[in-house]
Amino acid sequence: MRVGLFIPCYIDAIYPEVGIATLELLERLGVEVVVPLNQTCCGQPMGNEGDQKNAASSEQLFCDNFEGFDYIVGPAGSCVKHVRMHFDAIPQTEKVKHVRKTTYELVEFLTDILKVKEFPWASYKHKVAIHNSCSAIRGLHIQSRSEWQEPYFNKTEQLLTMVEGVTIKQITRPDECCGFGGTFCVTDEAVSVKMGQDKVADYLNHEVDCIVSPDMSCLMHQEGIAKRGKAPIKFVHIAQVLNNGPF
Amino acid sequence: MSSLDEILAAIRQNLPAQKVAYPELPSFEKQGTNLKDQFKVNLGLAGGESYDVESIAEAQEIMLKNLPDTRVSCSAAPEWEGTKSLNAIAHPRDLDDVDLGIIRAEFGVAEMGMIWLTENSLKVNSLGFLSQHLAILLDPDAITENMHTAYSDIDFQASTYGCFVMGPSATADIGAYLVRGAQGARSLTVFFIKETK
Amino acid sequence: MSKVRVDQNAADFIYMDDIHQPTHDKNLWNARMKRDLAASGIPEWEQMRDLASQIKEHTLTHLDQYVEQFVTEATKRGVIVHFAKDDIEHNQTVYDILKSHNATKVVKSKSMLQEECEMGAFLEARGIEMIETDLGERIQQLSGEMPSHIVMPAIHKTTADVAELFARTIGTNPDEDDPTQLTEAMRNNARPKFLEAHAGLTGANFAIAETGAFVVCTNEGNADLTASIPPLHIASIGIEKILPKTRDLALFIRLLSRSALGTPATRYTSHFMGPRETGTEMHIVLTDNGRSRRLGMEDFWRSLKCIRCGACMNTCPVYRRSGGLAYGATYSGPIGIIIDPTFDESKFSELPFHSSLCGSCSEVCPVRINIAEQIGLWRQRMVNINESSKALHYAFGAVEKVFANPKLFRLAEKAAYYGMKLTPNWLLYNTKLNAWGKHRELPEIKKETFRDWYIKNRLKK
Fold first, then answer.
1. Which structural domain range is residue B51 located in?
2. Where is the 4Fe-4S ferredoxin-type domain positioned along the sequence (chain C) (predicted)?
């Protein structure tokens, strides 16, 4: 199985340890991982704002970079959702369609494709709250939707329960949006911040010491708020926990 | 002003090309539902009360005990005589002074704890809404299971008005705090009793 | 026409004080939780939503047929049906009917369509006294504001606000802040108005083609008072309210209030088939006002399925923190931001951007409107017709050049690293230049990117 590793722009520049953890984890699980060196951004910031014209070249570059893999795996729910569900600023050639169909977010790749049952090398003795991004929940459906009458499942939780020492805590509004929303976080700053502050307050009310998520973009916003409020909470990506580092 | 044809023309110009078919609608009836029990529970959740009674006299006694300050009662049901006769009404607003309105409901709906009233049971429609309190007579065998079964029982040609009433009136428009007796009845009491002809 | 600055209005609501926004958020989240609880008791809930969506889509794709049938059946029952192509015709028609009956005092139960047409101001300017009878709508009328929520028009006001308002306008004791007493005061204030009114105005939640009947759902009983006392009843009905058959009503009644408030139904579900008795009249003003044009919009016509339950508002994290008045339109929240631009693409151009795209709205909608998807499509349209933020578009244009060129991208990363390192905090966190930094710490751009590490640790080995 030949996998192309998709490293979102902000992971490359701000959270390289998440990329490292993802790479090492997949290699540990026996996957042949290739990292295209000319990847930049998937175009989501532009696409989300309706700017198809300015999203097009990023989308095209992505498809060019990720041609010829069995799967493309990225440690980012919202970016993967953009690729799978919205990559329509460019002509839908067979190559583009194949790239879109085979792009997976890390958690769903581990549960649905690799069907991983254990992480014997990992240990994480923390009281943890899980944050699945809205894209991951309602777009990629890695968690059941609380708005629906459907049986409960949570793929992120499924993986974390396989890690020794983890205690998972449920907060009051586990799937309420944290307010990041892409450029929304600056164009609608007051609302975005209020949503983030409420989310952090929810964590504090439940005495969690660490937030684990498959989406660092949400966590970047939540962590910014937590740090400003001097809240003693850590924010980590699930790849880092499952791979036992780097932190 | 516009005509029907002009409105239709505007619609026809804009109809979506892809049509959607009309679906089959099940009636969602459940096996083994005790309709009267379910009705009582749902009426209770809506803030209504209910009693099983053997006679109208018994019902009247209960209302007297629950609402001792009732001065004016007005009944649309021949079985129960109120202090004010509906025959004396010249205008719907004349029922403004009614403390207790008495009506025999046409049937009940278990799923909701609703009763169905039309001008046939109300005689004067405003009785159902100007009365400060309502006493409703309901045949315990005239309870249908849910909205689907209820609507299949109604002949809309047989009246010009019909209302499903679920408990007393209420609102939560001030600070999301639930208050009973918003504009309509402050209380609604159902008496399970067959019609005395 | 100046644009509605919904982001600024929302910020004003948030910074008003420590009470209004948190209370608003809490009350509406509770409504969302009550909806979930109500739905959990109905095993067929998801199937009901599918059926409701299908019935609405069937009706809308055959709308001319059903409008015609509705008009025929209503007319047979003695209802006088009028037709209004837009808000002006609607208001003029209502006024003409009132004038021809010498009606100068009118009571009104809730109608979003009448709100949309700004009928109140139109009638008042012509000497008609019009009293809102829904408590929330009356509160808003007394305060000179639009309703802020489709179902709970005054939910942005605290009990203290209402107490102050009633003391000022209907003479209650300024220290009276008990909701029960305030409601009682309004009951007694409104009652004479019903008795004296020359005409009653209502909207309609549903209109049935098969029988020509229309249905009004209330919790207070105010529609029934409005219709059972005055001799003249005028109902404003949008063409999209039509359903094919009586049996369809069962489904929608079961969905509406559970989605809106988490109660099995509204306390009064009133069905009007014809004039009450000889000497009374029932009129319908069947209104288009942009609905047929919306029907022709391939990306947006499904918004016409809306049954006005407000579930999307209750679940929307952005709406709960903004308050409905921030949107500056009759319809607010998620449904508002996909409908309002059809009334004025320029004035409401910022509304589709007032969303974090969380998607919860689509998931609660009882008729499965793809609200989140339509928000995205409106953003594309706004960019295409040059109504979106020019600054953002230019910024994206510059950013696109960087992302399209891997070498340039890597250079930009290095520049950002050094830029942040060298910029003093007072400049970096200047609130005029850096919106992120107003209430958040900035993330740290790393000296060694993932790519740098990968080349060093995997390729050079």
1. 33-192
2. 297-318
